[in-house]
Amino acid sequence: MKVTDRLRHDRPVFSVEFFPPKDEAGEAELWRAIRRLEPLDPAFVSVTYGAGGSSRDRTIRTTGRIATETTLVPMAHLTAVSHSVAELRHVIGAYAAAGIGNILAVRGDPPGGPLGDWVAHPEGLTYADELVRLVRRLGDFCVGVAAFPYGHPRSADTEADTARLLAKIRAGADFAITQLFLEPEGFLRLRDRLAAKGCDVPLLPGIMPVLSVRTLRRGPELSGAPVPPAVLERLERFADDPVAFRAAGLDVTAELCADLLAEGVQGLHFYTLNRSTATAELVSRLGLGAQATIPA
Ligand SMILES: Cc1cc2nc3c(=O)[nH]c(=O)nc-3n(C[C@H](O)[C@H](O)[C@H](O)COP(=O)(O)OP(=O)(O)OC[C@H]3O[C@@H](n4cnc5c(N)ncnc54)[C@H](O)[C@@H]3O)c2cc1C
C-alpha cells in the first residue's frame, strides 16, 4: 500500500514518525507505542534513518517488522550520508525485500549538523533529488521528500529553497513532509509558492507536540522555525511546572493542528519520539483516525 493511496480528499488523516530504538528498553517502548497507535489507523508510520551502521540496520529491521507484524503501512527513511551508490542500492533492495513500498528520500546531515559542510562519499550522491531518482529507478516505490517552511538552514532564501523542493518533486517525489514549526503561516506560504508553480503534490505538515521546555527551545533551534511571541508568553510561565507546561503545550499544538486542518491539509505527520500518549490525545481531540468512524 502506497502512502499516496492512504491520503484522502474527503477526510484528513494522520501519520506518525519513529526512530530506530537503541537498546532492548527502547525497543519495548517503541513497540508499546506502535501497538497503542495501531488501532487509531494512522495512514502510515515512518522510521528515520540514522548516521551510523548499526542504527541503519535497526531502521531496516524495525520497518520490516512493522510491514510483517502489524496492519500498518510502513515508510522507511533513507539518507545519502557516507553511502556509495552501490550501498544505497543495497539498502533500497533490503527495503523492497522487507515489503516496504514507501521511502522518504532525504540527503541527511553532515557530521556538523544541518549547517555543516557536506562531505560527499567519493562514489556517493550530493543532493536529495539524486536519491529520489535512484529510488525511483530501482523499484515501484512511493517516494517522499523533506520540505522546509522557513527554508533549509543552508538555503539562501525561501524562493531558492522552494526551487530545490520543486526539483525533488520533478525528480519523482510523490509527496513532501515538512520540518516542524509552531505557527501555520510559514507552511501556508510554502504551500502557496508550490501552487503558484503548478505543483499539487501533497504537502504534509510535520508536528512536534510541545510537551516540555526542552522541546520548545530545541525544536525551533534545530528547525529554524520561529517561536511565535504569543506561544512563548503562553508557555514560559509554566517553565517550572512540567505538568502544567505539558497541558498548555498540548493546547498550543492542538490549536496549530486545528488551524492547519481548517486550511485543508490532507494529513498531519506527528513526530512521536517513540511515545504514543501525546499523539493519541491530539488525534482524539482533533477527531482524526479510526475513532472518527466509530458511531457514538
Ligand atoms: C520530514 C523529515 C524527515 C527527515 N528524516 C531524516 C532521517 O531519517 N535521517 C536524517 O539523517 N535526517 C533526516 N531529516 C533531516 C534532513 O536530512 C536534513 O534536513 C538535511 O539537511 C536536508 O535534507 P534534504 O533531503 O532536504 O536535502 P536537499 O534537498 O539535498 O537539500 C540540502 C541543501 O542543499 C540545497 N540544494 C539542494 N539541491 C541543490 C543543488 N542542486 N544545488 C545547490 N544546492 C542544492 C538545498 O537548498 C538545501 O540547502 C529529515 C527532515 C525532514 C523534514
From TrEMBL:
It comes from Pseudonocardia charpentierae. Keywords: FAD, Flavoprotein, Oxidoreductase. Belongs to the methylenetetrahydrofolate reductase family. One of its GO terms (molecular function) is methylenetetrahydrofolate reductase [NAD(P)H] activity. Its cofactor is FAD. It comes from the Bacteria. It catalyses: (6S)-5-methyl-5,6,7,8-tetrahydrofolate + NAD(+) = (6R)-5,10-methylene-5,6,7,8-tetrahydrofolate + NADH + H(+). InterPro entries: FAD-linked_oxidoreductase-like, Mehydrof_redctse-like. Pathway: One-carbon metabolism; tetrahydrofolate interconversion. This is Methylenetetrahydrofolate reductase.
